[in-house]
Every structure is written in C-alpha cells, then in structure tokens.
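We close this part of the discussion by returning to an individual protein. The sequence in question and its structure tokens are set out directly beneath this paragraph:
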Amino acid sequence: MAAEPSAQGTTPELESRLSGPVRIVGVGLLGTSIGLGLRARGIEVVLADASPTVVSISSDLGAGRPAASGDRPQLIVVAVPPDVTAEIVARELADFPDAIVTDVASVKLQILQTLRERGADISRYIGSHPMAGRERGGPLSGRADLFVGRPWVVAAHDAISYKRASAIDDLILDLGATLVEMSPEEHDRGVALISHVPQVVSSLLARRLVDAPSAAVNLAGQGVRDVTRLAASDAELWVQILGANAAPVREILAAYREDLDRFIEALGDVDAPGARRRVAEEIAGGNTGVARLPGKHGIDKRFATMIVMVDDKPGQLARLFNEIGEIGVNLEDVRLEHSPGVQVGLAEISIVPEAVERLTTELVARGWRIAG
C-alpha cells in the first residue's frame, strides 16, 4: 500500500505485509514503538488507552491516530500490564469479531488459560512476546526500531489456524523482528530463566547496597553496574510478571539457592580438601554458560575488547565512534564507565579479535589513549 508522510515529514519507501488497520490498545513503550514501526511502513494504526493524554502523546509522536467508532481493524495488539491483559483481550475479541488479537505481555500460559475459562473466542487469539524493551517506559521512550533484529515469540496453540495466525507473523516481520515459535509453556519456562530470575537476582543484590558504607559504594565499577542494571525496573510491573509466572521462577530460584549453598559451604573453609576446586568449577561453569549466549545476529561468537579513555567533553564519544568507522572496523558492542570526580570516561568496545592490533595502532595515531 502507498506510504503516507510521517510526523517528521519524510515519506518511507518500505513495503509492508500487513494491510491494516492495526488497533493498538495500551500505548506505553511497546504500544507506541509498534505504532511507530508500522507507521514507518505506511500502515494505518489506531490507538486506544485508558488515558486520553497518553493517546494524544503517542499520536503526536506519529504512532497513529486516536481510535474512533466505526474502526474495523485487521489486527489488534494488546499492550497493557499483565494483570489486566486477559480481561482486555477478551473485551477486544468480543468488540471486534472480525479481527485477530494478540498481546505482548511477558507471560503467556496464564493469559491463555484465563481466556479459555472465560469462554473467549481463542480461535482468533494467539499470544506473542517481543524480547525487547528499555529501562524507561511510556510513549516518550518509544522507538520505531525497538524490535529490529530482536526475537519475538509467537506462543502457538491448537485452537487457532495457521492461516489466521499469519497476521501476527506479518506484524513481527514488518517490524523487523525475528519470529520464534514456542508453546506457552516453553515460553514461560524460557523467560523465567533468561529474564525473570535475572531480575530477581539483580534486585536482591542491589538491595545489599542500601545499607552499604559510602566508602564501599564509591568503589563501584562496571561490574556491579552490569549486574544491578535491571534493579532499576518498575517494581509494580514486576510483581505482576512474577506473580503470573511464579512456578517456573520458583523452580529456578530453588536450584540457584542450591548453587549458592555449595558455594557458601566451600568458602566456609577454603583450605578443606576440594573447596578451592569447587569454587573454580562454579566460576568455570559460568564461563561455559555465558559462552552460549547469542552474539551479534544470533551467532555464538566471542569478541575482543579494548578500553579507550575518553575525555569528559561534549562530542568526544561521537568523535570516537566516527573515527572507528573511518578506520573501517565494525563496533560490535560498547559499554561506558565514568567514575565520580574523574574527568575521563572509559569506553569498553567489543570488536572482532583480528581487528584489535590495527584499531589500536590507528586510534593511538589519532591521539586516543588505550587503557592497559
């Protein structure tokens, strides 16, 4: 279909699989990002939310227009908190009998079971979950490219046909995400391990900092910042998520507690026979586990790291990125650290190992300081 000018005045040339219109219910971070991504492809998007103000903000950002009576959506995306997702999905199924409905909540099994119990028409519903987000929520944090290259799970069930579910596949592909098919049970066990338990561990560790001496907190470097980054998440939202996925989260945490008990026992007497070996095996096991995490483009790949010292002045980080590009080296990842009271930041950049020597030489020649 022909693309319409966006809110910024540009005219996208992207082709779309969906024909639209797409109705989005709940226009926070995810809902607004979906709207922005679809509008970039010229797809008609209508926005609905319990807050008219939020709809106005999202609409002003270019994510779609406010919903109106007489709308006949092809697809409905429910992007509301988990504790009301099933209720809103059931309402949308009843109000729009010709539409396919999906939701983007981070739990899937409980929602499907609740809809079955309510007698909702789940032949037009299939849950999904984009593995993407940001630390800050709300429509102002929305981005059209939020889902590009990210996994997006479709939680299939037997009550919906492949033909009907294809609209959700089209949505995912139009937004540039990678479609992953799982059952609701597989999904909930999977996110318990890679998302929900890490949130709990991060929050509990960060809570140890509350009563820590200031002298200790001032020693914080990138390690503790990495481990506790998730602890800044919305507590109310996580109560809902963990409550809806309690069983698999509890199972993994119980196993994790056993791991901690073994570690604590070994540290209780580090000179006992086998104690140091046990500590080493646990640490090495972590090395093996982290090596399984997908690298860039979903490939298991380890990168070399360099630490570049960046003066705390406007434009210096942009200059570094630009010069790395001029040198012809692809930047795979970057992490920043800035200690209080120091006028230099540390940019830890990840690149392919074979580029380290050349990039080091070139950056030093351009006046950059390489730590270590």
